[in-house]
Design goal:
This protein is of the alpha+beta class and 128 residues long. It is built from 4 helices and 5 strands, in the order E-E-H-H-E-H-E-E-H. The strands form 2 sheets. The chain has a 3-stranded antiparallel β-sheet. A two-stranded antiparallel ribbon has the order 4-5.
């Protein structure tokens, strides 16, 4: 199986214009794949726009790779080159890593556990 890095260009007005990612060549060529955005900031709008305005998304393959690791390394290189996490032009809220995602702003409301509270039982377990 081959892998690709890609650039999504969004021509609407509800999301940033770009997204850099990587996936299998098969998914990228399907014509139905436009990234997997899971950030609290953009996820709902991204899903809604894909469902109702798919024509606003365009996927361009930037490079081909023989394995997932090489594709992820190139994805990370491109993300760093374009400073995607801090740029208002990109939907990316984190940097790609071979073993997970880092670089995401998890302060305050952006933290996945923001607003969640621990049960009394859990607090007691942590204390013990």
């Amino acid at each position: 199986m081959r892998y690709v890095t890609y650039l999504i260009t969004y021509s609407g007005d509800k999301l940033p214009k770009f997204y850099i990612g990587s996936t299998s060549e098969e998914k990228a060529m399907s014509g139905k794949y436009f990234g997997s955005i899971s950030s609290r900031k953009y996820k709902d709008t991204f899903i809604s726009e894909k469902e109702s305005n798919i024509e606003l998304f365009k996927l361009d393959i930037l490079s081909y790779h023989d394995n997932r690791e090489d594709a992820l390394e190139e994805e990370l290189r491109l993300q760093l080159e374009h400073n995607v996490v801090k740029s208002d032009e990109y939907m990316n809220e984190s940097l790609a890593r071979v073993n997970g995602f880092f670089g995401r702003d998890t302060s305050g409301e952006n933290h996945p556990q923001y607003g969640a509270s621990l049960s009394e039982e859990t607090r007691n377990k942590i204390s013990n």
